[in-house]
Write a structure and sequence with these properties.
0% helix; mainly beta
C-alpha cells in the first residue's frame, strides 16, 4: 500500500506522518492537507490530485493542471501527469507545501488473504501459505511469508529473500522523509 508523507501532520503537529493511499480513492492536493475523494470526478477543477492507475498493479499517478503550481522532484510536471515512483517529492503552490510519495509498507502479521487452489508459496521456505494463517509481506516488494511461531519465515533472516528489504515486524517504516 502506498503512502503520502506529510510534514506537521502528526499528533504534536511536528515531524512527518503518513496518509495511507487506499485503492480506488483519489486524493486532492492543495494548500491545506490532502483530502480523500471517492473519485477524480469529486475533485474541483484546477486542483492537483493523486489517483490509482487503472490496471496499474498498485501504481499511482499525479495529475495537475498548470494552475496548481505542482513540482515533482523540483521540476514542473511536464504534460500534467506522471506515474509516481518511490520517494518522489511533491511540492504544491508558491508556499511550498511539501510531501513525499512512498511505496513502502510497514510489515505486520495479518491473516493470509490467499489460499485455495494456486495458493501462494512462502518466499523463504517455498511451502504453501494457507488462507487465514499468520503471514507478513515484505515492505519493499510485497512478497508473502509465513509469520507464525511454528514457521517464523519472515523474521528468519535480516532481509527479504527477494529484494533484501529488512524483515522486522515492528510496524515501522524503514524510510521516512527526515533525511530527504
Amino acid at each position: 500500500m502506498a503512502v503520502l508523507w506529510l510534514r506537521g501532520a502528526g499528533a504534536a503537529g511536528e515531524g512527518w506522518a503518513c496518509m495511507a493511499l487506499e485503492g480506488g480513492e483519489a486524493v486532492e492536493l492543495g494548500a491545506g492537507p490532502p483530502r480523500r475523494r471517492r473519485s477524480a470526478e469529486d475533485v474541483p477543477g484546477g486542483r492537483a490530485l493523486v489517483v490509482p492507475l487503472r490496471g496499474g498493479g498498485g501504481r499511482w499517478v499525479v495529475v495537475a493542471p498548470p494552475a496548481a503550481c505542482l513540482r515533482l522532484n523540483g521540476l514542473a510536471l511536464a504534460g500534467g501527469i506522471r506515474v509516481l515512483r518511490d520517494r518522489d517529492e511533491i511540492r504544491i503552490g508558491d508556499d511550498g507545501v511539501t510531501m513525499y510519495f512512498s511505496t513502502e509498507t510497514a510489515a505486520r502479521v495479518v491473516p493470509f488473504a490467499g489460499g485455495g487452489t494456486g495458493a501462494a508459496a512462502c518466499a523463504r521456505c517455498r511451502q504453501p501459505i494457507a488462507g487465514g494463517s499468520p503471514s507478513a509481506c515484505c515492505g519493499g516488494c510485497g512478497i508473502a511469508y509465513h509469520a507464525s511461531d511454528e514457521l517464523p519465515c519472515f523474521e528468519y533472516a535480516a532481509g527479504c529473500a527477494v529484494c533484501g528489504h529488512p524483515t522486522v515486524l515492528d510496524g515501522e517504516f524503514r524510510w521516512t522523509p527526515e533525511g530527504a
